[in-house]
Fold each of these.
Amino acid sequence: MAEMDTSGGGGHKKGPGVKKGKKLSTRVDLTPMVDLGFLLITFFIFTTTMSQPTAMRLFLPKDADKPEDQNKAKESGVITLLLGKDNNVFYYEGQLASDGANFKSSNFKEIRTILIDKKRNTPEKDLVVIIKPSADCTYKNVVDVLDEMAINVLKKYALVDISEGEAALVKISDASGSAGAGASN
């Protein structure tokens, strides 16, 4: 509390019946100000820890000595997911056969089982999932597939542009409602 001298002291009446005013010090007590400072610091530290952005954790590849070795994967450990319209998911393992024999159809309910089977049958260091959204798929479908990667703890995956041949195959399969002759699931 601030204490100040409020006595008159103007030289009015002086005599035996008039008491002389006390001189008070002008000291300011800063204890409440320090308390307020600590409260503000505590408040700002607490709110900054609460406002941390929450995002999906990404596992980035380690640097390789040669750039051409950076993105190499075993063909037996690769599964490619192609996202079509109407929640259709098409996939193939390894490289796409020229006749499309290994091109299969699925949906978002069945894709988890397919990914779990692939994870179970492939060593973790060799497993890579390639996600290729088509022009007709929705943003929700892409996020759903990325959620599947997090749910199934698949650490190596890539979001890649779809090739023209794959896009045509997806478009034909979307139109026919299946993944082609002899290649359906």
Amino acid sequence: MLQLEFFPRTELKSLSDFQRLEGTQLSLSDRKLLAHHPEFYQTPKANDVIRRQHANMVDRILGFRLKYIEEMMIAEARGFEPDGSHETWGPALHSGVQTWVGLDLQTLQTPYSECLRILQLLKIKPYQHIIDLGAAYGRMGIVIGGLYIKNSFTGYEYVKARVDEGNRIYKELGFNRSQLIAQDLFDKSFELPMADVYFIYDYGQVEHIDHTLKQIEAVAHKRPVKVVVRGKFTKRIIADRHPWLDLQYEGKLEELFSIYSAFIV
């Protein structure tokens, strides 16, 4: 068994280094040690294909059972929609809610290196709270739990199987300040908690995202907030309907996310 205490940090420079880790029987203490190294979340090259491959390897190294869980949902969804796809399986399985069942896992989730880059650009301060709206398996909570140990993370995700799996890994790694919650964000009874940062992906239809942005706007009347948007769909909604959000950063090398700020007085 590999003893990572003697594993040089400089070894995490190429995908082959991560492949070697993936093929090694790691103890829980090994995985915990890796989870606290910034290099573990950095992609060897700034390339979208490499970012996705790297993120897939990190998932497996940490012990996520993503392929199994997603394949089980696809099999169940096919019972409702035999000739369906990722466009139809989620709504068929989850009462009309678009949960992207069958979508490629690396499209469904934000790469770890991108999560790290976002947190660096945000210049996160200790004890700030980050909320992810449409968190899938909670990769952002992994990076925060490993590298920003004084910060708290809450991820909301509709699919309970994804929530349970993410929380299982959080618990194994001892990330007490990271949690996932099963939640329909469009439910009328859901009240968005206050936070310092909100992370939004293209998680649903126009009215869903618009509803969430209006909830964040209500928070911005009480305190400064930052909103990180990943996906062109949500950016268009902001441009058309939410001028109160001030664009602070638009991906240059990344071209995948934008950061907005707001404090409405």
Amino acid sequence: MNDNPFDSVRRNVVLRAALTACLLASPFAVRAEDLPKTASWTDDFSDVTTLAKHWSSYGFLAAGIDAKNPLGKPVGAKDSRPEWWQIVDGALRGQNFPEEKHGSGISRDVVGQDVRLSCRFKIPAGGMAAIGIRGPNPILEKVFNVVSLHIRTDNIVAADNDVLHPKDSPEAAELKKKGEWNRKFYYAKKEQISLAPEAWHDLAVEVRGKELRVLIDAKPVLSYTTLCGDAPKTSIGFGVGGNGKTVLATWYDDVSIEPLEGK
């Protein structure tokens, strides 16, 4: 193996990114059939009852880390740690704990084709906001993020999912037989930005067909042609990221979803 330290850094970055994408595509996310299908909704996180009714959190418990579960025991809904996601001062706070191998996520049902997701977010220095929009990914034949964003104070990244092997290949058939994902997660596009830490910022994510457009504080910061962004949307997910050393909090507020058809 190449001992170049920069290769090690790159491997670690890719691994963390892949784990975040896995989390936002967790099977613990709210299923589309579980909640009423509405094309538009808003949530200002002023009511804990609404949070409990419409949102579902999920993550990995540090107490469950073993050879079979290297990230920890996967849990969701009522088995999630309440400290992961809470309403604090009228906003949604997600916390990343250093003893846990991966940050938690939270999701809510959506329905639509072309959509606009808007919210406010706040991240600390060294933290990350993770945004996922899920749907039936036709490339992977599974429901994964068809739009995936990682936002830090100095950059924004669009991630995507492709196959490791052609779906009709012997290699793909063997992975399916083993119950393993025929999946390649990768950072598709990265743009440099500059965000003040511990300050609220406005985010708008627009998906028209396969075209993704992202604005922060009303300024376009990223455009990307996704592989499967034109799939029907089933849920959105928010995630947190940390430095593995301290408890870091990522905040979300004033979330809204609206269809873009006809606009």
Amino acid sequence: MNWRGSGYHRLRRWGRGERGTFQPQASQRHDARAPAQWARSRLSLLCIYVGRLANEKRVDLLLNVARTPGVALTIIGDGALRPELETLFAGTNTHFTGYLFGDDLADAYASADAFFFTGVSETFGQVVQEALASGLPAVIINQGGITDLVEHGVNGFICTDDRAEFAEAARTLRDDHALRRQMSSSARTIADRNPWMAIMAQLENYYAEAYHLNARMQRVYPPRWNFLSWRMRRLN
């Protein structure tokens, strides 16, 4: 995101880490653990969405993905909009799981072929990072902090708020197996750059930078008096 273009200066971006829970092979039994409703032919593309089911998540943008031949969609999460979405996606190859946690969620990522996310107001988007760590190409909307995690055409696709664009991305990943494998490898490589140890070291460097900048400013523009001298003057 272009913070400087918004008028901010001396900003540093501090991201989040991934603690190793999410892997391309989350468990040795991940295929067996996938719900029966996920079953699909070897030619199909299994796409997943993970997140709350609320208006700002714009899950409706995945309707054409669900209608695409050879594509199955699993929606993981819950929320007030679930009944409405179940009605909207009725008749498509879509399965709603409700919330998943821990190993079940990690296995869900590992059992999928691609990750789709349409939330328009994310400041970071941890689910996108979890998907990348699981080796999934990420197809996301071009809004919010999630755009910092995906490089278009490298580890996924960035789409506008257009159902047709998301469906086109699904068709591309369905038909081009070589591209999908390449994106999967890139997704995992990019996620590997963000272990928590590296993220915390980055934060320490930012604090050190702020400290040294403040010390330099104090030398260049020394205060005429500090709080202690002010108190002494009041006492006198």
